[in-house]
């Protein structure tokens, strides 16, 4: 997943962030960006508190590689006990057990390990139009939230927000690669819980191929100088189409190799 922003405020924050890194200033606050070890963890906890105040109307959805931060785990448990639904996609280490009576009954955790490496961190607070979404370099681990320099940014563009919400929705419908974490600490397959098998990762392959084809076509349509002094006339017409299909085939092979 690649997202590029043109937001001036976020760009200015990023510029200041890297300038501060050069002089070893790591305890800064920014207008948009959240940074560990200064503001990232506290901002996440505050956003969770807002959902806790909404009770059963609150919602949390967290996607990351690992969850070990004790304070965040306790806050997730508190949210569950107050009726907040918590959905989590945690690929690796998860130190919170879902479905524990009186503690995490409203928490659901799945792990996705498939053909491609899951590495995005997406944090959603609230549902629908009021959902606040952050993407971040930080996992919810104490080493990331308290001892490393990490960064997070709000997603402000409505189209990108919508894309990320759909992205997360599709992950929770995966019945091929997903494993559900049980209160016992065991993982089970989720296949059979939905009418049709759904591989979240393969779902995006046609979209990726379509974009690659569009890029190749656009490149082919641009005039390219050709040295005709040593080229046979019969080869000139075939040169463009051969280049197109050769590059397309190489793109397809690279995806599945």
Helix content: 40-55%
CA-CA gap between termini: 19 Å
Which band does the percent of strand residues land in? 15-25%
Strand order of the largest sheet: 1-7-6-5-2-3-4-8-9
Helical run tally: 8
CATH class of the largest domain: Alpha Beta
Largest sheet: 9 strands, mixed
Mean pLDDT: 87
CATH superfamily of the largest domain: Endonuclease Chain A
CATH topology of the largest domain: Endonuclease, Chain A
Identify low-pLDDT runs: none
Rg is: 23 Å
Total domain modules = 2
CATH architecture of the largest domain: 2-Layer Sandwich
Number of strands: 9
Question: Would you list the SSEs in sequence order as H and E?
Answer: HEHEHEEEEHEHEEHHH
Question: What would you call the structural class?
Answer: alpha+beta
User: What is the molecular shape?
Assistant: globular
What does this entry look like structurally?
This protein is α+β, with helices and mostly antiparallel strands and 257 residues long. It has two domains: 36-199, Endonuclease Chain A (Endonuclease, Chain A, 2-Layer Sandwich); 205-256, no CATH class. Helices cover 41% and strands 16% of the residues. The chain contains eight helices and nine strands. It has a nine-stranded mixed β-sheet, sandwiched between helices. The radius of gyration is 23 Å and the shape is globular. The two termini are 19 Å apart. 25% of the residues are buried. The model has no long low-confidence stretch (mean pLDDT 87).
